[in-house]
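yo, PsbT is done. seq:
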Amino acid sequence: IIFFAIFFREPPKVPTKGKK
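structure:
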């Protein structure tokens, strides 16, 4: 769920390995 949420959202305030 988190992976999908990160992929869907790309907020710079989240230190995740999303679309950085």
